[in-house]
Design goal:
Elements lengths: L2 H9 L15 E11 L7 E11 L2 E12 L12 E6 L5 E6 L4 H10 L12 E5 L12 E2 L7 E5 L3 E5 L2 E2 L5 H8 L9 E7 L8 E8 L5 E2 H13 L7 H21 L2 E4 L1 H21 L1 H4 L2 H12 L5 E4 L10 E3 L5 E2 L10 H4 L5 H18 L8 H24 L9 H22 L5 H12 L18
Antiparallel strand pairs: 1-2, 2-3, 3-5, 3-10, 4-5, 6-11, 7-8, 8-9, 9-12, 11-12, 13-16, 14-15, 16-17
Length: about 475
């Protein structure tokens, strides 16, 4: 490996968006290097790197926005972003760092969208704008913090540029679906995107998506958990009206996607194959997390019921990674974000048609998480646990009612399908928490345990929120 590649091999595992945590990096290789800004010996340079990280025989692509400056010229507020010092072109030593934190360079990123040349196919990295869209430069980008698998820069109150860290060849679903929903009041309007040609691939790969920024909006996860906290502190708290409205909004977005993009019906054989894939994930998770294994027989029963469903199951393009952290609430109503699906899954798989009930299941699991997350690290308190689960049941039921009222498939009439999707999502969560946040592992495990026990409470749901099997 080169000197820069060795530095990146040390730096990568510490990044929030790196998906291979816990697995040693065997090799890092710079596949492509695109120079966007070359300011000369004394100024900052900006390069887009596409790197290959090899781990246990597997290789993953990542995008790195790499800044470089002469030694001792890195501003103090950027010191924590330094990756190291290495020789660059011409043999000169330079400090290399994460350029997403550099306001001077992020301002130049947005300016590239304003150039007239972006209408043509020029250069190895291309800045595209939608026909009829004018992008105005408005200063540096402010880096959004928090639990993100990508990096987002907010420019004033006008734009947000989302750069995709884990790269897969082809058009990112976030671009595809936002384009299909352009004009909908339930998404941020797409303005443009950045693309590049990866080696060996004819279809351009999406590097970033530019959208209008939705100001004065609050993250759905923040709203929900604040509501749960208020409830657990003994005060009045009701979130069900918001949950119902979110359900209606979700159904309307699904309807818009079905009108704009292809649809189909899942065949019985395809349903059986899908159930087989769920079984494989369960086996892998049970082997890694022994606490899950005792509940595996009941989960398997749910998957077997799903495999035998003979009702037509409509499929279409869906969000694919739907939860409370993917929605925001401005004054006008709910807005959906991040349509890229699960970033660790290849783009071709994320582009496959699926049941919109999978999105419903994801949001129902998120209500369960919002309730259980505040109990993590606390001693077991039966009253608090009961109150949190009751909150989850109310809001899950409200979301399902809203989804049906908004024209979506009534979840109460598709309990077998929904139950399988919920279990599959919870099994995925068990693996994720075991590998990334072990102290959160109790949240999906307790949900699976309660759902597998068959204890019912409320309108067709278990205490943990998973739909009960009819009869």
């Amino acid at each position: 490996m080169s000197q820069l590649e060795e530095l990146l091999a040390v730096w990568l595992p510490r990044q929030r968006w790196f998906s291979g945590k816990g697995i040693p990096i065997r090799q890092v290789r710079i596949e492509s290097r695109y120079t966007l800004v070359s300011a000369g010996p004394g100024g900052p340079d900006l390069n887009v790197l596409v790197i290959q990280a090899g781990q246990r025989g597997l290789s993953s692509r990542y995008q790195v926005l790499l800044g470089s400056r002469p030694p001792r010229s890195l501003p103090p507020d950027l010191a924590r972003t330094a990756i190291g010092v290495c020789q660059v072109a011409g043999g000169r030593p330079r400090v290399v760092y994460d350029a997403a934190h550099d306001p001077q360079l992020t301002a130049l990123l947005l300016e590239r969208f304003t150039a007239q040349e972006n209408t043509g196919r020029r250069g190895r990295v291309r800045f595209r704008t939608l026909p009829g869209t004018t992008v105005a430069a408005c200063g540096p980008g402010r880096l959004l913090t928090g639990e993100q698998s990508n990096t987002s820069l907010v420019y004033g109150r006008d734009y947000v540029l989302k750069t995709f860290r884990r790269l897969w060849p082809g058009h990112n679903p976030d671009l595809e679906l936002n384009m299909a929903l352009s004009g909908s009041p339930y998404v941020a309007r797409p303005c443009g995107w950045i693309e590049a040609d990866l080696s060996g691939h004819s279809t351009p790969t999406t590097l970033a998506l530019l959208q209008t920024f939705v100001p004065d909006a609050t993250d759905g996860w923040v709203l929900a958990t604040e509501n749960v906290r208020t409830l657990l502190e003994g005060a009045e708290a009701d979130f069900s009206e918001e949950s119902a409205r979110l359900g209606r909004t979700t159904a309307e977005v699904h309807s818009s996607l079905a009108r704009a993009l292809p649809t189909d019906v899942l065949s019985p054989s395809a349903a059986a194959e899908l159930a087989d894939a769920m079984v494989e994930r369960l086996a892998m998770a049970s082997a890694e997390v022994p606490e899950l294994a005792e509940h595996a027989p009941r989960v398997m029963e749910a998957y077997a019921d799903f495999a035998r469903v003979d009702e037509p199951l409509p499929i279409q393009r869906i969000h694919g990674d739907y939860h409370l952290g993917q929605v925001i609430r401005p004054e006008s109503g709910w807005v959906l974000l991040d349509f890229e699906g699960e970033p660790t899954v290849p783009v071709r798989e994320r582009q496959r048609l699926s049941s919109p009930l999978r999105d419903v299941a994801g949001m129902l699991r998120s209500f369960d998480y919002a309730a259980g997350y505040l109990l993590v690290g606390q001693d077991e308190d039966p009253e608090l646990s009961w109150a949190a689960r009751a909150w989850a049941r109310r809001n899950r039921d409200a979301f399902c009612r809203g989804y049906a009222d908004g024209g979506g498939a009534d979840p109460e009439k598709h309990l077998t399908v929904l139950r399988a999707f919920e279990f599959d999502k919870a099994v995925y969560e068990v693996l994720y928490e075991a590998r990334n946040r072990p102290n959160w592992l109790r949240v999906p495990l307790e949900s699976i345990a309660t759902a597998a026990s068959g204890v019912t409470a409320g309108s067709g749901t278990t205490a943990a929120g998973a739909p009960r099997v009819p009869g």
